[in-house]
Amino acid sequence: MAPGRRVERVAALIRKETSELLINGIRDERVHQGLISITEVEVSGDLQHCKIFVSVLADADCKAQVMEGLQAASGFLRGELGRRLQMRRAPEVVFHLDRGLEKGASVLGLLGDLERERQERGEIPAGSDDAQNSHDNERS
After folding, report:
1. What contacts 10, CB < 8 A, 6 or more positions away?
2. 3-state secondary structure of 23
3. Which of 50, 76, 79, 120 has the least CB density, counted as fewest CB within 10 Å?
4. Angstrom distance (rounded) from CA 71 to CA 69
5. C-alpha dihedral sign at 118, 122, 125, 130
6. Nearest by Cα to 33 from 3, 69, 4
7. What is the layout of strands, in order, in the sheet containing 35-43?
8. How far is 112 from 98, CA to CA, in rounded Å?
9. What totals of helices (H) and strands (E) does the chain contain, helices first?
């Protein structure tokens, strides 16, 4: 098996097992204060280091506590991953907060605000789909 393919396979297995452990294995209450989604898993080529990117649906204080709980559980996770994946040496696990979903939601919110402002002022810029539809309706 090609080395790159092996790393991808290990990353997918780590993602699966970590998801299971987040639901059933970690007893730290801090981890269960928010809704956690694993967005990405990166494993180094030598399989010794693993970055797990998570999105946490909670307020800022709860997010911080969830991340503290995840970091505190990283040793437990490393041991469980080694056992479940039958690895001689399990990778060191580090969690990172992925803010991509937050940024996407923020951008969508801003676009929605702009659209509402335009509608309130009756502005429809030329060349937009809305302007074309208005022009087509006038001809009919």
Report:
1. 43, 47, 85
2. helix
3. 120
4. 5
5. positive
6. 69
7. 35-43, 49-57, 92-97
8. 23
9. 5, 3
pTM of this prediction? 0.69
pLDDT at residue 129 in the model: 62
Residues in the chain: 140
Number of compact structural domains in the chain: 2
Bigger pLDDT: 121 vs 129: 121
Same-domain pairing of 81 and 123? no
Give the residue numbers spanning the domain of 48: 3-98
Q: Does 78 lie in the same domain as 119?
A: no
Residues in contact with 25: Cβ distance below 8 Å, sequence separation at least 6, in sequence order: 76, 77, 80
**Distance between CA 75 and CA 119 in Å, rounded?**
54
Q: State whether 113 and 53 are in the same domain.
A: no
Same structural domain, 67 and 9: yes
Using pLDDT thresholds of 50, 70 and 90, give the confidence band for residue 119: confident
Residue 21 corresponds to which amino acid?
L
